Amino acid sequence: MTTRRNFLQQASLLTAGVLLLPGCVMAEGNKNVGIQLYTLRNELPNDVKGVIGKVAKAGYREVETYGYSKEGGFWGLSAEDFAKLLKENNLTSPSGHFGMDAYIGEGKDEDLESYIAAAKAVGMEYVVVPYLGEGLRQSADDYKRIAQRLNKAAEACKAEGLVLGYHNHDFEFKQFGDTTGYDILLQETDPELVKFELDLYWAVRGNKKPADMFKAHPGRFELWHVKDMDKNDPKLNTEVGSGSINYKEIFEHAKEAGLKHALVEQENFSMDPFKSISQSYTYIKENLL
To answer: Where are the transmembrane segments (predicted)?
Structure first.
């Protein structure tokens, strides 16, 4: 949360012309910390307005949505009503996760059209593919077909002023000969149209070094999912700064990656979820940005 003290400190540094500020330099200077609302999936459906209010109180200024459908909207709210709720809480939503399996596998263009309409109504910048069903990704050729569909979707997004993004898990790093599904997606999609939301936890769990990925494909990773890995059980998440992932090192490469939006996500908790998201926010704001 920006306090008067923090504001004055930042203003004095800028006035003095100090360039060696701690932390990363995001592309286009965005220093907001966001959250993927899937983090609060158990609480959100029962109290949308209350949860959004608590997210804002924790200091977040950006949220990423999940689970939208044309029938159910955003947890029972239309895109327009959800946009109003965000505005009331001084929040914006730069991106949303929209299920794309039917679009990719069955050619349901109408799904994509409904997602684009919802994204525009909320004021989003990115329509993000969150996951690939197992049946879609059995071979290298499957990933090439997926890339073709992503390129087509990206063109449709661009025509409406949006950008298509792709969010990974760890299955994309499975080897197919001398390549991986993720490498195929990077190579076969248009770098000007398709950006990547790198889930840093899953990348590390997939034995990848994010800095190497940024160096190989500079500017393509405009969104990050920031969630830490439990030191005792790598299959579990923990609060950012409390786990085994060296986030200070990763954030040093933010500019090379093209980072514009850093979004906290956590899938399991050992404390109250709202205390957890506040702790992660504070760590990122004070130590990484």
So the answer is: none
Query: Cα separations (Å) of 141 from 3, 135, 144, 180, 182?
Result: 52, 13, 5, 11, 12
Q: CA-CA distances (angstroms) from residue 243 to 190, 228, 233, 234, 249?
A: 35, 5, 10, 9, 14
Record the tokens describing residue 16, joined without a space. Answer: 């003095």
Continuous H helices in 97-180: 101-106, 109-122, 140-159
Chain centroid to CA 157: how far? 17
User: What 3-state class would DSSP assign to 124?
Assistant: coil
Model-level pTM? 0.90
Q: Which CATH code, of 3.20.20.100, 3.20.20.150, 3.30.420.40, 3.20.20.140, is assigned to 27-287?
A: 3.20.20.150
How big is the CA angle at 208 (ends 198 and 148), to the nearest 5 degrees?
A: 50
135 secondary structure, DSSP code: G
Q: What is the pLDDT of residues 132-158, one digit of tens each?
A: 999 999 999 999 999 999 999 999 999
Farthest-apart Cα atoms in the chain, separation:
58
Task: Give the H or E element holding residue 274.
Answer: helix 273-287
- What is the domain partition of the chain in residue ranges? 27-287
**Residues 259, 263: Cα–Cα separation, whole Å:** 11
What residues have CB less than 8 Å from 73, skipping those under 6 apart? 79, 81, 82, 118
